[in-house]
Specification:
alpha+beta; Porin; 14-stranded antiparallel β-barrel; globular; 7 helices
Amino acid sequence: MKSIKLILCLMLSFIFSQGALDQYDIPEYEYKTFQLSGNDLFNMSSTGDASEMSINVGADYMSQSQRPGYNLMYGVDFDFMMDSEDDGVNDAVDTSDWTLDMPFAVSQYFGGTKGAFGFADGNLSMFGGDAAEGVDDTSDLWLTLGAGYGRIVSARPVAQAYAIADALGIDADDDTILAIASVIGAASSYGSIYKDDAMQQYYNDLAEAAGVDGAAMQIQKVLTSPAYNVSDRFTGCEVKAGLYDNYMKADGDESKGDLLMEAGYAMPMGMDSQLLVGASYAMNLEEDGPTMMGLGATYTMDHSYNWATSAGFEYDSYTVGGEAAGSDMALTVSSSYAVLNQMSVTASFEYLIPDDGNDDTDDDATMNLSAKVTYWVF
C-alpha cells in the first residue's frame, strides 16, 4: 500500500514541460472509426477422410470526443466464430457462436476543465449461438460509477500535426506544430465559413501552416486515413474512485461489487514517444473478499506517421482474507504498420508469468506470438 501511495504522490507532484503539448489546453475533437478484422480469418485442414474448417470475422466501431467540459466514448465490437468438423465416419459437427461488446465511458467536469469530475464507464456484453443453448444468463452490464480529480488530456490535434510534419519531412518547431494543430482544431468551423470550398480551404490552410506549398493532397492523405493515425498523445494525471459491479446479474446472484481506486499519469516524451503509467486497487465488498493491487506502464514510439510500436508491463497481486493469494506479471510488445491507406498489419508478442502463491506447484510462463490484419472502413 505504501508503494501505491508513493507512486500517486510522484505522479501528482512532477511537472514536465512538453513544448507544444503544454501550450494546448483542451483540444476539442471528435472522430469515429470502423474496422473489419479476422484473427484466423479462414483455416481449413484435412487428413484422409477427416477435415476441419473454421472462420472468424469481426467488426469494431468506436466514437470518441473531447470537449473542455467532458469526454465521451462509445463503441460496438462484434465477433463471429464458426467451426465444422468431419471425421469421415460420423456426421459432421457444425457450431457457430457470436459475442457482442458495447463499451462506453463518459466524464463530466465541474468548476474547471481539469479539476473535479464525475464518471461512468462500463461494458454491455452479450453472447449467442450454440454456446448460449440452455444458458439463462447471456448478458452482463459491468459498470463503474464514481468521481475523481485531475485530467489526462488527449492532444490528438497535436499528434496529427506531428504526423503531418513527419509525412512532409519538415523539422517543425513548437510554433509550427501549434499552427497546424490550431487549424485541425478549427476544422468544424470551415463548413459554415467557406461553404462548398471548405475542404479545399482547410487543406490549403494546413499546407500554409506547415510552410510547404502544394502539400494539401499529401496532408489530406495522412488525416483522412485512420490507418495512419496509429497512435495518440496524452498528457496530465488523474485519480478517481468508484463502485464497480454487474448490473445485469443472473437470478439468485447476490454477489457484491468492488470498491475501485485508480490513478494515471501520461507524459509525452518529445515528438515521437509517449509514456503512460497507472496504478489500481480493488477491494471486493464481500466479507473477507479478495483484493487486487496493480501497476502498469506502456511506452509507445512512432517510427514514422504510418508505423508505431508499443511495449507494456503489468503486475497484479491478489490477497484473500488478508493472505497473499498469488500474482500475475505480463510483458507485451506490439508493432503496427499501415501498408495501405485503409489497411494495417500488427505483430504482437506477449509473455505471461503467473504465480499462484503455492511453492509446491510450478507456475509455467506462457509466450504468445500473433499477427493481425485490420481493414479500416473509416
